[in-house]
């Protein structure tokens, strides 16, 4: 945006020149409630010649008449992402480490971070650590691990040789997907049948073939059946969407082939990270004593 000379709303120099876009400028725009439609008054006040920020609860916030550019749900997602970015090591955000954004702690579920170390024996090396702190102030007791050549060799072997339990789970998902599709077809046929019956019921009443009392009683029964079927179909279609996003065994092996090719020519950490993200959704880390267990979750 700076290269294209798009003016920023901030960073105006005293001489009127624009300093250009920065990370902070973008973050301010993303977090601003103006784009939710709000206008806030009284953000600052002067006290004894000093300008200070007014606590948020004391500010005046009203809904403006300008165009809204994001929904409350989008704003919440943006703020959640910004919070995660603040908690994440900047080097990790830039994919400087091979497992940036991929390694998660088994004990607390938090994303793990990386620290660069150096000693005479190993030279420069990385360590995987969990910095999560619980609400009571206690810290996660996950033990870190130096990510040496043995670590990456074990990880590579685990990735390309898919755990049989994972394969069975993938096949089970595929089977559930097919079974759910069949159930949906049956339910859809039943729904059509009930709607046709309701139409005929209306015709019978209009032609004075049944009394109003009988019509209302039968209509209530049919309407309940239709409503129940529609709710069941809604839930089943959600299941189909979830199951449809799950990879097949064939897709996993195809991606493993692509990963092996990329990994074989990867030199930098960024290249290794890109190779991993072609195939892997996350890697769950757990250490007990000297034994490290890595669970690979495939895309």
Automatic annotation (TrEMBL):
Does the record carry DNA-binding as a key word? yes
Q: Which UniProt keywords apply?
A: Coiled coil, DNA recombination, DNA-binding
Q: Which residues form a coiled coil?
A: 184-246
Name used for this protein in its record: Recombinase domain-containing protein
Q: GO: which molecular function terms?
A: DNA binding; DNA strand exchange activity
| This protein's record includes keyword DNA-binding | yes
Domain Recombinase zinc beta ribbon: start-end pairs:
98-146
Cite the Pfam families for this sequence: Recombinase, Zn_ribbon_recom
**Ranges of residues in domain Recombinase:** 14-85
């Amino acid at each position: 945006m700076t290269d294209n000379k798009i003016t920023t709303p901030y960073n105006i120099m005293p001489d009127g020149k624009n300093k250009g876009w920065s990370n902070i400028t973008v973050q301010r725009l993303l977090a601003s409630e103006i784009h939710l439609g709000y206008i806030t008054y009284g953000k600052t006040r002067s006290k004894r010649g000093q300008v200070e920020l007014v606590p948020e609860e004391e500010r005046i916030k009203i809904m403006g008449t300008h165009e809204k550019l994001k929904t409350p749900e989008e704003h919440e997602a943006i703020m959640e992402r910004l919070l995660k970015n603040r908690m994440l090591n900047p080097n990790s955000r830039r994919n400087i480490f091979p497992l940036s954004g991929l390694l998660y702690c088994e004990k607390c579920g938090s994303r793990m971070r990386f620290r660069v170390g150096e000693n005479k024996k190993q030279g420069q090396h990385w360590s995987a650590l969990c910095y999560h702190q619980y609400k009571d102030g206690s810290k996660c007791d996950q033990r870190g691990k130096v990510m040496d050549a043995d670590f990456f060799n074990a990880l590579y072997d685990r990735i390309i040789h898919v755990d049989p339990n994972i394969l069975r789970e993938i096949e089970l998902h595929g089977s559930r997907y097919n079974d759910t599709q069949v159930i949906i077809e049956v339910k859809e046929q039943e729904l059509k049948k009930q709607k046709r019956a309701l139409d005929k019921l209306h015709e019978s009443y209009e032609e004075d073939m049944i009394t109003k009392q009988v019509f209302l009683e039968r209509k209530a029964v049919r309407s309940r059946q239709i409503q129940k079927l529609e709710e069941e179909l809604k839930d089943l279609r959600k299941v189909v969407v979830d199951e449809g996003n799950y990879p097949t065994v064939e897709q996993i092996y195809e991606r493993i082939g692509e990963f092996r090719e990329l990994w074989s020519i990867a030199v930098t950490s960024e290249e290794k990270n890109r190779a991993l993200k072609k195939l892997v959704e996350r890697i769950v880390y757990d250490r007990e004593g000297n034994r490290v267990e890595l669970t690979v979750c495939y895309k």
